[in-house]
Specification:
- There is one protein chain.
- The chain is built from 22 helices and 28 strands.
- With about 625 residues, the chain is α/β, with parallel strands linked by helices.
- Helix 11 links the parallel strand 12 and strand 13.
- The longest helix is centred in the first third of the chain and has 17 residues.
Length: about 625
Amino acid sequence: MSTTAHIPFREVPYLPLKLKMDRRPDGTIYLDSGQPLKAWPPHTLAPLVKWAAERPDQIWLAERWPEDPSQPGWREVTYADGLAHVKRLAAAFLSEGAGQDAPVMILSKNSIDNALIMYGAMWAGSPAVPVTPAYALLSQDLVRLNYIDRLTTPKFIYVEDGAEYQRALSAMNLEGRLVIYSRNAPNVPRAVSLEDFAGQAGPAVDAAYAALTPKAVAKYMLTSGSTGEPKAVINTHGMIAANSKMIRSVWDEDRLNEITGGPQVMVNFLPWSHTYGANAILHNMLDWGGTMYIDQGAPTPQRLPEMLRNLKEIPTTQHTTVPQAWAALATALEQDAELAEVFFSRLTSMAYGGAAMGQDIYERIQVVAVRVTGQRISLSAGYGATETAPTASNVHWPNDRMGLIGLPLPGNTFKLVPAGTKLELRVKGVNVTPGYFRNPEKTAEAFDEEGFYRLGDAVKFVDPANPEKGLAFDGRTVEEFKLASGTWVSAGAVRMAAVTASGGILSDAIVCGLNRDEIGLLGFLNEAFCQRLAGAGQSLDDLVRHPGIEAALRTAIAAHNKANPNAAARIARILLQPLQPRADLGEITEKGYINQSRTQELRADQIDTLYSNAPVPGKILF
């Protein structure tokens, strides 16, 4: 039971719930927010123009000066300077033949230059194609990078560092294409530095801005490719612009600004090659008129110190990240009183997305929040997809229960369709993609007869008698499988239950058992948490073999099995993995979510070992 449940929440100025529900005789349920959708601009550049006029000197973007000891602190770009940079880049793109048929591929980590190139390209009418750097830097065969290149045929390619991306560029046919770089010129037929590329804003730039429409393509956002090659999801200007207003339509914004004492501030590392970081974070902060501190940290042993340094220096008003980062942050907050004081000083709300988060992580964070502030701070979830730009629903009320996806945001309609014992979720709204670029077959498959996008997820009401309490994720409809006995297993539900039951030991898991007698897991350890149990400095290979880790996990999963003795939920065996999942192979998405089918395909030998009788390190039987 929660030890902080009696403590009041810090004020969160959400608007009242006004859920609308329509139940049909066949069991189909339609859900709408009931709150009106606030007016949204026609395209993604309008907020930049607005805030440059109204708050010209406010910081829009900030990043640590890269690898330059002579430049300590933050490089900052104001809204006025940002607009001027974007317009100059738009002028250069236009002079080189920019337009809807001339995409700009972006190969870069999050950075100010990345953002300026992205918005400059979109201003000129060229769709941005943000690609995860892993496809270019970590992949050995560059197969996915070359597939994306052939699919989207970019006219321009931006690389942050020409030397770093030289191998990838050399594998591409660059004839007739321009490579733009921020530093270290690559050896390619035609390249120009970002500084030299910028042109002079003039009437052509103004005309390009005036020509942007809600239906114009702003980006091709790539799916993770969990089943086959990545798809290029068409993201229109209207989708992205409307989605930001959908999120803001459940807030009393005037009251929020009173509480925080000014514009919103975020420190965030979520990658812009993924819809979560690109649209829900970067563009949403632009729409808010907020300040975005670009975090080069992450919840990995190598990058965690940087993430904590930034959060210790910049008091944020909102913090949104993935469960893996929340788990690492919970430990840091418990151990560092100064970090906790700064982190909670201006914070109004916390959120997570991308994967399930354990209730224990929530409780640990709240214990520190109460110690520092005397109040709890709402920690809730959002839900969506690359195809929904991305946020289709969230928990827009003070929340202390993990695992919810909330209720639809204004501008969306949810359609819950009976599918066996589950409800399949589909969505229609102003934020939903018109389809996949150059893939009419997949586009046709993605929508039902009423034009609702099929998300492939099942949901359930937390309290069927009180729908306003929200929806919870109920597994992937495509991830259900049968054991040899004919028992159906919901891989998503088992995965969430196992990660939660582990109490922080597991960061994720692959649920196995198709045509087998029992459920087994390939388990991935949360390295930071496990080093707290076993001792700092131990390698992942050591942790997999550590008797203390095995004993703690055995106890945790045994408790889960006692509460879930049925074959559809009982975990019979686990094989801990000495190698974390690899993004460049498609085992994980950039938001940290395991691709079940892809990982099982690549680790077929590990599944054989899991179900063999051979005793091997890291295998635990129950």
